[in-house]
Amino acid sequence: MPGRSATIKEVAEAAEVSVGTVSNVLNRPNVVSDETRLRVLDAIDRLGFVRNAGASLLRGGRARTIGLITLDIRNPFFTELARGVEDAVRELGYLLILCNADEDRAQEKRYLEVLEEQRVNGVLISPVNERDNSLQWLRDRGTAVVLLGRERRNFCSVRVDDVSGGELAADHLLDLGHRRLAFVTAPLAIPQYHERLTGVRRALARRGLSDDACDVVEVGSLGNAVEGRAASDILVDNHPEVTGVVCGNDLLALGLIAGLVRRGTRVPDDISVVGYDDIELAQQSPLPLTTIRQPKQELGRIATNLLIDEGQRGAAHAHQQVVFQPDLVVRDTTSRLRPVARRRAGRR
């Protein structure tokens, strides 16, 4: 119909359903049978119907959008997680608003306020501080919230068992004969890194080794490749006895390896290195990285489904704490400890 958009009533007549059914297809497609939903979508397409989102918001509704607030979008872990969220959001007929808190609490709070102003259906967040009152404030206003990588009472959450991941990484190095380890990490105030160190120490304890068998090298604030490279100088200059390294994430590991090579230390002949996350760069780097795999896209998909369910069902929604188990992926940066370690300090 040239000059105007079709109405929801005209779509209902064309699809031979009620106006309420059309509304359900647009807002709660999960309650409509596949056959009916496809018939309504076909009518929408033929008539060129465009929903009036503004009118819905004026009636106190919420937009068919969700927000995703990441700690640091420069880290490929969050980029790949966001892809899983986007895929799930698109399948469900929603749009995604991506925000980068840059590990800044004030910036995170501002994004939460903006997303609430936009009347988003819900927010997925890897919070700077999971105890922040802003999250409960958002929930009190009727916005669904799901935590990524964190847990909090009465909130849905999706995370990986990072203690188990740290254990896997350390066990791999210990199985290869390494007995002097290091843990290279971003600030341990970030819970995920602290839990990974806990896992490393648990693996040592099972072998009768003390915490002193693992030196902790805490660098920077973001856990990126530049900070990993800086850690290589600390290892070579101050911890020459270390033969196996667990890194808090893959970017730290890749930067560490680049720095070790620059210093004349061979990986894995002199030092074995294990990363964490299994980002795409881990397998595509010149020396493919042994690492701990997190199911990033699956994390995003499950979190999105929980968020949409909470937004649609409200008080009837049952909060869930979903915990995935990580996997060890063995590639080329680890090897068995040689009887005589041939370590070289190298030149700067």
TrEMBL record:
This is LacI family DNA-binding transcriptional regulator. It holds the Pfam family Peripla_BP_3. It comes from the Bacteria. PROSITE patterns: HTH_LACI_1, HTH_LACI_2. Residues 6-60 form the HTH lacI-type domain. SUPFAM superfamilies: lambda repressor-like DNA-binding domains (SSF47413), Periplasmic binding protein-like I (SSF53822). InterPro entries: HTH_LacI (IPR000843), LacI/GalR-like_sensor (IPR046335), Lambda_DNA-bd_dom_sf (IPR010982), Peripla_BP_I (IPR028082). It comes from Nonomuraea marmarensis. Keywords: DNA-binding, Transcription, Transcription regulation. Coiled coil: none annotated.
